[in-house]
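Worked example 3 (structure in, sequence out).
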């Protein structure tokens, strides 16, 4: 990412929740300020004296955490960090459709994509896409190919020889086991940036022998050759769905998102510190009373984003008329947005689809599974979405009807503004947003904002204790910001940053005219109360 590592994102549509509970370490009530650096395992709290805007040192309590890093993201998918909101409404963003990834399909396959992954691979200096290839029967004959590209927007069609039988042997760059045989590695990603980086790539899937009820993980030096003899079992059940992993740097664990057990369509997490020993599955998200009967959660890919986590929840609306089967197979899948401050506790804000199905007859008209999200060099969010022409398990009916199912599955690309999950937008002419008290940890501050051509926003800083405007940082002294900016730097007539306010409690107030605000970036701790108890 091309962001100064001293910046914290405060995206104005979420809530600040602390990341870690440590009931045994409590600051005295005489210490006036509790600051909480949010993180998956917490970052610690700092106490300051009760006098306004003084940085006199006091006791510091540091909960145990593998990584003590105060620079994190606070996303406002709810209102926790917003102290005051006038004339504003929350507008939920949705990524725009860009293109279908592939145009040519092998004549004897359903399509490509599936439980795909897309990422920048520093080992080869290219973007990498792992795409499943589905034969007419889909599972169990599925295999995976590795593609490379200089641009995440441009992928060459897979190269194959249609005369070769079985079909997988006619494809190039197939992922294989130690015997050179194809299998279905559901998820593969680089281990770069994690403690196991020297091992290359990590794969998570279910055991290729369908009689063995296990899910397994293993390494590859080149991302294409895996030795099944060295695999480790991480669940005594077949995952039967997307079961990808992420590195949770704050908790110091690898976590796999899966199901509690085979075809139990809820979201569970399994963790490991060493990829040798794994915790039991813990269910972290399931349909609630707001969801309709028959709603199931098919899977949920997740990505680290500015110090927190964004989830792409695959919501399966099963067919109410499929009464004979205990495990439902018919229905539609769309993607909703979820989020977590620590990777373990997950929340749902907007319940409408983040990525909805397209029109009937189009690729994606039956189902849309958002599988991956990456930040481009141009600071855009690019989503890899698996689309199908029919709903879940519809292809056998299509084949019985004599319909050509070639290309019935395929990946799509969608694009979203950086921080564009939602914005705070003026309802009419003017609006105001004020944050709760924060403690800046660096001088830099920026906002992600868009205004009309003839309007602007102004940033005022308030005393974090009294709520009064700080001299030198008032609205009257603020330099207006107009236009469309991802990283606009608030300035005042006598100040260009927060250098004089580092370590001191402030509130940020933004006066907006015909504008929408996506994010505030500032390295900070959060003053959430006088008690030091850290709760999640």
């Amino acid at each position: 990412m091309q962001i100064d590592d001293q910046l914290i994102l405060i995206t104005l549509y979420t809530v600040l929740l602390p990341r870690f509970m440590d009931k045994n370490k409590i600051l005295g009530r005489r210490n006036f300020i509790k600051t909480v650096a949010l993180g998956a395992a917490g970052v610690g709290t700092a106490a300051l004296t009760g006098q306004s805007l003084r940085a006199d040192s006091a006791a510091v309590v540091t909960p145990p955490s593998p990584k003590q890093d105060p620079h994190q993201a606070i996303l406002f998918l709810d209102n926790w960090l917003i102290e005051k909101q006038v004339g504003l409404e929350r507008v939920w963003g949705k990524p725009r459709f860009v293109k279908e990834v592939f145009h040519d399909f092998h004549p004897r396959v359903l399509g490509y994509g599936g439980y795909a992954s897309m990422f920048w691979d520093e080992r080869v200096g290219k973007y990498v896409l792992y795409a499943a290839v589905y034969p007419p029967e889909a599972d169990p004959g599925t295999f995976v190919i590795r593609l490379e590209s200089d641009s995440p927007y441009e992928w060459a069609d897979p190269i194959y020889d249609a005369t070769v039988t079985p079909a997988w042997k006619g494809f190039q760059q197939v992922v294989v086991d130690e015997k050179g045989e194809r299998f279905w590695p559901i998820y593969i990603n680089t281990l770069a940036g994690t403690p196991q980086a020297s091992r290359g790539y990590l794969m998570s899937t279910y055991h290729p022998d369908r009689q063995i009820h296990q899910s397994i993980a293993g390494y590859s030096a080149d991302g294409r050759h895996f030795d099944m003899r060295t695999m480790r079992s991480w669940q005594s059940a077949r995952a039967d769905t997307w079961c990808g992993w992420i590195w949770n740097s704050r908790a110091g664990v690898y976590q796999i998102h899966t199901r509690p057990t085979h075809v139990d369509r809820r979201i569970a997490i399994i963790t490991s510190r060493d990829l040798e020993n794994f915790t039991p599955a813990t269910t972290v998200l399931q349909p609630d009373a707001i969801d309709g009967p028959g709603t199931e959660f098919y899977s949920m890919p997740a990505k680290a984003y500015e110090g927190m986590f964004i989830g792409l929840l695959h919501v399966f609306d099963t067919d109410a008329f499929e009464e004979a089967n205990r495990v439902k197979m018919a229905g539609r899948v769309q993607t909703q947005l979820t989020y977590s401050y620590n990777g373990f506790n997950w929340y749902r804000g907007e319940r409408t689809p983040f990525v909805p199905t397209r029109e009937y007859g189009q690729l994606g008209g039956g189902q849309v599974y958002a599988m991956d999200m990456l930040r481009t060099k141009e600071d855009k969010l690019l989503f890899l979405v698996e689309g199908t022409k029919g709903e879940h398990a519809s292809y056998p009916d299509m084949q019985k009807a004599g319909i050509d199912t070639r290309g019935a599955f395929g990946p799509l690309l969608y694009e979203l503004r950086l921080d564009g999950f939602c914005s705070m937008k003026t309802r009419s002419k003017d609006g105001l947003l004020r944050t709760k008290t924060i403690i800046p940890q660096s001088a830099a501050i920026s906002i992600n904002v868009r205004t009309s051509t003839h309007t602007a926003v102004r940033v005022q800083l308030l005393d974090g204790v009294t709520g009064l405007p700080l001299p030198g940082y008032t609205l009257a002294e603020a330099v207006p910001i107009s236009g469309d900016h991802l990283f606009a730097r608030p300035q005042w007539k006598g100040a260009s940053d927060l250098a004089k306010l580092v370590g001191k409690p402030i509130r940020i107030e933004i006066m907006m005219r015909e504008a929408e605000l996506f994010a505030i970036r500032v390295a900070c701790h959060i003053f959430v109360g006088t008690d030091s108890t850290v709760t999640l």
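Notes: The two ends are 28 Å apart (CA to CA). The chain has a mean pLDDT of 86.
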